[in-house]
Amino acid sequence: MFRTKVGMRAPLPAVTARFLHWMLPGCYRAVTIGSGVLLLAATAHAADFSGASAFKYTQAAVAFGPRPSGSAANRQLQTYIRSQLRMLKCEVTEDPFVAKTPKGDVPMTNIIAKFPGKSGHAIAVTGHFDTKLFPGRKFVGANDGGSSTGLLLELARDLSGTPRVDDVYVVFFDGEEAVGEWSETDSVYGSRHLAYKWKADGTLKRLKALINVDMIGDKSLGVLIEENSTVSLRKLVWNAASDLGYKAYFLDTGEKVDDDHMPFLKLGVPSLDLIDFDYDPWHKDSDTLDKLSPKSLDIVGTVVLESIHRLEHQ
Ligand SMILES: [Zn+2]
């Protein structure tokens, strides 16, 4: 992704209390107050998002090493993602294409898991699994490429087996990263390809919302307001975060960031990018697993799952 404006970020207040929150009729979840007294642990959702599980998926992705588009490790990760999705109750499809990049033709493949609903409407949650190409370096992108992969795999596990209102698509984009310097034509190859494919086949018209996640595993989590994103969708997600007691992690400051949501936004789909860009190891070899925490993945995944639920019942 690419920032078009550098914004300032306020320090995060500590979260000292979470409050019981009734979400929708029949749906409530575990909450704690103060030092962590468990008040209630019940939910009508089939499965709660597990940050620990998302972290394990992230570890598995990172274990393949640097995963730039077109590399053997990228293809091995695709095989891993498919193998995990095929264990779930969902329809798995692929969107292979050849990208014209400054370094020539590069084969890329998006992977799409569909959890079918009945309303005719659709929601997409997306993120990228490729890592930026840095020849001669060992850039494993634990947060940048890894965290989104891990979160999406866990989200898919949670969505599996629950009857859905809307079709929910979980999309793993290839080719988010620029092959050279970030530009309109050298970036977001996978999302650009799928946006036009979905425009052509009519899927785009059915999309109520697209939520993209990127770099959301940082131990010091602070999801910024991405200023290109659709305001109403951003508010829905921020309200869900606030109601779940996670207000401190969803900032009230922001900036413009180019990311995989942009091709859909440009084609009229309400779209939102969830990204924490205050991350020193960004595009450095120090973007490793020790910079991440399962708790951050848990917070973002839980908020995304709740947001899907709210969007389905809008
Ligand atoms: Zn990147």
Q: Could you give a short description of this structure?
A:
By secondary structure, the chain is α/β, with parallel strands linked by helices. The protein has eight helices and 14 strands.
Folded structure, characterized:
- Helix 1 (51-62) crosses helix 8 (294-312) and helix 6 crosses helix 8 (294-312).
- Mean pLDDT is 89; it is low at 5-46.
- With 314 residues, the protein is an alpha/beta fold.
- Strand 8, helix 3 (142-159) and strand 9 form a beta-alpha-beta unit.
- The chain has one domain: 3-Layer(aba) Sandwich (Aminopeptidase), CATH 3.40.630.10.
- The protein is 31% helix and 24% strand.
- It has eight helices and 14 strands.
- The strands form five sheets. Strands 6-7-9-8-10-14 form a six-stranded mixed beta sheet, sandwiched between helices.
- It is globular and about 50 Å long.
- The protein binds zinc ion (ZN).
- Zinc ion is lined by residues 1, 132, 144, 177, 283.
Largest sheet: 6 strands, mixed
Approximately how much beta-strand content do the residues carry?
A: 15-25%
Distance between the termini: 30 Å
* Proportion of residues in helical segments: 25-40%
Tally of individual helices: 8
What structural class is derived from the secondary structure elements? Answer: alpha/beta
Q: How would you describe the shape?
A: globular
The CATH class: Alpha Beta
Bound molecules: zinc ion
Rounded to an integer, what's the Rg over CA atoms? 18 Å
Task: Write the element-wise H/E pattern from the N-terminal end onward.
Answer: EEEEEHHEEEHEHHEEHEEHEH
Biggest sheet strand line-up: 6-7-9-8-10-14
Number of strands: 14
From the 3D coordinates, which CATH architecture would you assign?
Answer: 3-Layer(aba) Sandwich
